[in-house]
Amino acid sequence: MPMTESPKQLCGSCPSAENKNTIEFWCFDCSESICIECKEKHFGKFHVIIPMSEAGKVDKSVITGPCTCTDKCSQNSYLHCKSHDKIYCKLCAPSIHKSCSDVQSIANAATGCQHRTSVLITDLELRLGNLKTNYLQLIEEQELNLTDLNFQKYQIKAQVCDFRKDMNEYLNELEDKIGNQLDRYYEQCRAQISKNIQAILERCNMLSLLENTLHLLITNSSECRTFIAAKNIDRKQCEEESVFETFEDFLKLFKLSFLKEETNDINKKFLRHWERLSLK
Ligand SMILES: [Zn+2]
Ligand SMILES: [Zn+2]
Ligand SMILES: [Zn+2]
Ligand SMILES: [Zn+2]
């Protein structure tokens, strides 16, 4: 029968089938709920009787024993072996106590155990209390650990946030710095290229002048004059060929370059050691 049985249920032990009383107690030895009248019969057999309301608060496993042969054995047959510090039933005695001599009846051994000076009980109560305190301390430690973890979590989040701000600032500065440097490089190149174009234009103008001169002489002058001029222009043109070659060598094409694209991956890899979050 379950211990949670409603107190209004009727006693199954009452002899009269018509006149059953309401159950009020629980007998551990018989594992049944009983009425106040039937209680006396169980008491007579040294059974453990407690109010129904208390039944749920008791560990049944420690109340019964030492043997399970409740039909033929009663507490009258229980003995206490001092050598082994064990209670046993003499009717179904374990062979371990066969040669034990320091043995007394359970009644003798139990005498005074409920008195407040009983070492057995006071020591047991103390040890139960201490152990429970130790367990409660473990709970406290676990809860403290949770508080610490929460603090650590926010600390690390703040650390990551600060690092990110630092990196943002650093990258902003870097972007400005690179931008300014690019502006300066471009300005240098622009000045140089303007100078180059100016120098090239001077050569072109000089060649245009020679072209015009030759054309004017062909249309307006004598063959003799044209011949002399053509020979001079020919010499100048030859000189200009070698000037052009030096120009070609001298003029270099500028090129701005930055990191190769795979460098971005390397930068990300560098940041990856930030992912090494550990739980110990
Ligand atoms: Zn009854
Ligand atoms: Zn009983
Ligand atoms: Zn027994
Ligand atoms: Zn023994």
Automatic annotation (TrEMBL):
PROSITE patterns: ZF_BBOX
Start and end residues of each B box-type domain: 6-52
Keyword check for Metal-binding: yes
The organism's place on the tree of life at top rank: Eukaryota
Keywords: Coiled coil, Metal-binding, Zinc, Zinc-finger
Coiled coil: 121-184
Single annotated GO MF: zinc ion binding
Descriptive protein name: PML
Species annotation: Mytilus coruscus (Sea mussel)
Taxonomic lineage: Eukaryota, Metazoa, Spiralia, Lophotrochozoa, Mollusca
